[in-house]
Amino acid sequence: MKRFLLLFFCLIIGNSQAQNIFINEVMTSNASTIADDDDSYEDWIEIYYTGSIAFNLEGYGLSDLPSNPYQWVFPEYWIEPGDHLLLWCSGKNRTDINYPLHTNFKLSSSGETITLTRPDGTIQDQYLAIIIPTDFSYGRQSDGAAAKVFFQTATPGDPNNTVQGFSEILNPPTFSVAGGFFTNPFSLTLSHPDPGVTIVYTTDGSDPDITNLGGTTYSYKNTYPFDPGTLPSPTFFSNSFTSSAYSSPLNIVNRTSASNDISMISSTYDSDPSYYLPNFSIFKGTVVRARAFKAGAWASKIVTQTYIVSPQGQNRFSIPVMSLSVSENKFFDYNDGIYVAGVDFDTWRTNNPTLEAPYSFAANYDRTGDQYEQVGHVNYFVNGTEVMNQQLGIRINGGGTRQFPNKSLKLYARSEYGSSAFNYSFFPTESYTSYERLILRNSGSDYVNTYYKDAFTHELVRGTGLDTQAYQPSIVLLNGEYWGLLNIRPRYDWHYFNQRYGIAENEIEIIGDGYYVDTGSDAHFQALFSYFQNNSLTPTSNYDYIKTQMDVDNFRDYFITNIFIQNTDWPGWNTYFWRKSTTFTPNAPYGNDGRWRTAIKDTDAGFSLMLDVNDHNTLEFATALGGPDWPNPEWSTLILRRLLENDSFKLSFINRFADMMNTYFLPSRVVGLSSQFAMGIEPEISEQIARWHAPFDYAWWVHSQDVIGSFANERPAYQREHIRLKFGIASDVNATLDVDDATHGYVKINTIDITAATPGVSTNPYPWQGIYFHNIPVTLKAVPLAGYVFSHWSGDVSGTNPEITYTPTADFTAVAHFVSTTQGQPTTPLYFWMMDSNLPNNTPLTAMNSTYEVATEGIINYTSCLVGYPFTSAHPSWRKASMERRNSPTPLNYIPEANNNVPFATANMLGLQIKQPFQAQGQENKMVFNLSTMGYKDIQFAFAAKNENAVDGLLVEYTLNGSTWTTQGLSNATLPLTLDFQLFTLNFGSIPGVSNNPNFKVRIRFYGPNLTQDLGNRVTFNNFSLLGTPITLDAPEVHSSTFIVYPNPTTSVVNIDYDVAEINYTIFALDGRVLQSGRVNDHQVALTELPAGIYLLQLEAEGRTEVKKIIKK
To answer: What's the CATH fold of domain 1044-1112?
Structure first.
């Protein structure tokens, strides 16, 4: 009896203690609040226990599925009174009580019911589905209490009553008119469905704040002690920003006539800033920002709209407009503003009364780091349409150019600001659709000249393999005021290399200016540099080792570029080297092999900016000993000096320099590209000059372009002279390269293909001329196009080897000759796919019909690894794992006769891409080609393809019956890809069953180590073709006939006109098989049972036999 009473007492105690267990706090979207034991930000649930003795949670269930209350079951875990047990909802399913506990499910940020269930099946506690914003939590205001609230500051593992809770999170106000461009004034209404809220708004760019209805005043200066011996000015000015409670519609008008505001505040340490403060009313848009407030509730998100009213409407500006709004004290306050010289410069001058003002590091705008990131908002307009509207972080960017009046800015997308990316394709030269970091660049040292030089230089060498920054000029409005031209550029950081090469933040090593470590460790670089210091590269073995540590071709192009453009703010500065932190992996995807590579950076000093001459010997400068601390100290020239000790690198350097001067740096290309950049901003440059006097004036801007033009025309001769002097070369030699027929093939010299796809090569390049060097061997390679093979060389070179090395001692000519493929090879195109502008742009495709076919239409059917493909533009997976058009032409496998005999140069060719990811949820991307071969043999499938950092290669299979896939008989079913287009030819001629087969199909799949990656990379294809040889019968077709057969081609029946009473027919396949026979009835023969193809129709009547070739579509 005592035992029973004791057991009963324990059960009563246990049940009573169980009543004291609560789901106390929940976070369903943890972006930055607290990291788990793997340092990842996972969702979480907090359990709180109010009992008086320890309680065992073993057997309790936790679930986000009402149908499965024991989705995750607690292990034996004794929770102590007053404990806050944090459970990570990570899906990692960890139940070892000695470590943090993880459930086997994750929480949805869209809201779902969370249930804690007792072992007996009854509900212990439950939270009904509710949407909780990112980094907010939802829970009990007092631990274990009934009332639940939202917490802007979560308290995982701690009591909830230490922070304020909010009864609700308000929805934002509604604007009656969305932001954009307008020709006439209008009234703007703000509204909210809750009559109890107060709508607070601003029109000065500041955050709407119900506590700032009276306004906030800040101080600034417009005069600073620039000259030695002067003291800080005692004169301050004041400005303010104010929030207003909405009560009636707002009048949105053209505000240009309003007084200038923040544009009249000094942004430099000048004693007299009047040279850049506008003396006229600058253009002004209207930025309206609004937020809903209510007692006890968390205020809504801020809604920001920009209204640009002018007679020109959306034609007011010719380029995209970026409207930035920020509380102005964050930029212009004397003590805290990051855009002004401020207190920091006055302090510096007080401490250094006799020194000249420094170039940098002495003003508020020189402040760096997270603590100086200011939160603002951006509205971005393209062609008058808003394409981006989000909160962001803003910092000042640059080195010495921070002192310029119109400053470069860094833009940060972060999850705590609402979005971790800027989701827009800013740059026409890139296909990426989102960026985490951007720069608004003031053109650096080129600030008062062309205002595009660095971007132009990057575009000049885009495609060489060097990392470059794309470019989009924009007009910036700051709090509605015209702020002028700033160039949008992607920022070099780990996000950049993750986007392009899939390198994680903890895997990247970056060495920046002065060889100082920027990101990661510099140990590997220091070891490499030490090797350069202590070892000559004359021995081949030493050079071979260096090639495992750095991409020497990449560094070669980097040195050549900076030398040619005469960059004299380098090599002791403006350097940028990077690598993936791993041991050398030879076959890794590009950028992932552990070798150092370079990125072009801050080339504003090039093209005569700092020297006003075009003949500076930058080659000697970049290899000099004993240089000054800046710009070319001896340590900064070591790498190139050592590399040039090796004969192999020296030859490569000389020839690649010649190649690039004959293509990338060809005067006509440089001048044309510069003009293209100038034309892009010419409609805006006068207003930019009036606002900032940068460039100085319009005439100077034109002169700055002329400087580039003169440099482009004069520099090559000087550069060749410098090369000859450096390497003891006697003279230049002129090379003339030609082909017997440009539709048969092309010539490659050293590193460049002489085709229109190569920068600087004309659309009809032959005969092509380039300048090379006396007694420096060049490599020539003849590359045949589809249907041709190389025959021989003629001119000053000879031989039948398609690739030869020739050492010129005088001007020379080389002509490559090609002949048709030998008999027995397929000669007839059966199918061809021409990817041109008829394909829709930015559109995920599921199929593509052949653009040329001899009979039935060929079809590419595409299957994506993502279920639900294709997606609309509103879906987060839009343009992922997709087949799309791509601008990437190549002459490889181009067949003019399958494209109306249009030559490659004028073919308007684009391309076709398959985008990451290539695998997901057990599915894969694949392409299936439906290729009936009826009537043909000697089948050959060919195409051009290249990898753009997505996969290692292709897997090719085929089917004879439409369903069973095999590689049997294929000698090259696995096709490794490179970064350059390759021609792939698959010969099916010897495989039984391929010829004359209506069900023949080819399938392309993909292989590689990271097929699930989603970095926006791709595989690009072009010029798919199927060739064959017609199958013929011995019986000739009779052309003189009393039988008339029509229509031909046909889709179902043929009609036969004849004058005899009775006629018999037999239908043969082209290989002689009898497919159908009988008597002709009602002058018709039905072909409905036959697949599409080419057939022979034999007709017999009154002893006469005739054969007709017929085509069924």
So the answer is: Immunoglobulin-like (2.60.40)
